[in-house]
Write the structure tokens for this entry.
Amino acid sequence: MLVIETIEDFRRWRQEEKGTLALVPTMGALHEGHLSLVRIAKTIADKVVLYIFVNPMQFGPKEDFGTYPRTPEKDIEACQKEGVDAIFMPKMSEIYPEGKDNSTKVVPPAFLADILEGHFRPGFFTGVATVLVKFFSIVQPDAVIFGEKDYQQLLIVRRFIQDLNLPITVYGAPTVREPDGLAVASRNAYLSKEQRAIAPRIHQLLQEAAAKLQKAQSKNQDEMEQLLKPIRQKFKEANFELQYLESRDADNLQPVSPQTKKIILLVAAKLDSIRLIDNLFVS
Ligand code: AMP
């Protein structure tokens, strides 16, 4: 497996590669969720590249950019084991030579990017879309794989790839969970023992909410609001600071309507300063 650290070296390697290439974008601190994307990537392309870049543009001024977990040696070992062909881990100065604030930006449409995560993390999806377009342009992948764990991100990536006419196929991958249901995430490493014991409530309460909505068979947003109210209360009782728990149309994250084919529940909840997100389809 190659470990490539500069854009120039990456481009040189890429030019020599003749087959198809699948890219797995990550911020490192790799876990089973990331590795599940690699396994899917291996089934759809001849070569698999995983990049690691903790992207400052997608962190707010009060967020955890400085303390975000960084485990490069462990990550390299894990990728080697999974049969990744190349890890690309460029320095900040290569990706933002003039600094992140002086970079051209890619701004996804507000109806998708300024709601839910974007409401609580202003500018987040501009940071995500900008860095992805930069990496897509360097790596030139035929396919990219993203986790459904970050469902809004997956939809926004699909959207800007379409809007910018990029010749890249997007694959979504199911969320990998711990045995107790907690979605695997790099930020789980921040959880204390007590918080770790509470965190699986997120998935349990999502399941409870999904069962209620399923039973009601409603496609009326106001009716769903009423059904979700007691679940929101349960998040608070379990000591979460609930940022949002919403039912949305899974195709476009807009309010559920009679036209909705599939409903998704999305949640962001904090335990002290640790922010966890998750989602669940209402089947
Ligand atoms: P991150 O390093 O957090 O930016 O995540 C990189 C990619 O891994 C994104 O496409 C995430 O959606 C995906 N991912 C993170 N956690 C999981 C998980 N538990 N299951 C599946 N994919 C995940």
Remarks:
- The beta strands are 2-4, 21-26, 47-52, 86-88, 143-147, 169-173, 241-249, 263-271, 274-282.
- DSSP finds eleven helices and nine strands in the chain.
- The domain at 186-282 is CATH 3.30.1300.10 (Pantoate--beta-alanine Ligase; Chain: A,domain 2).
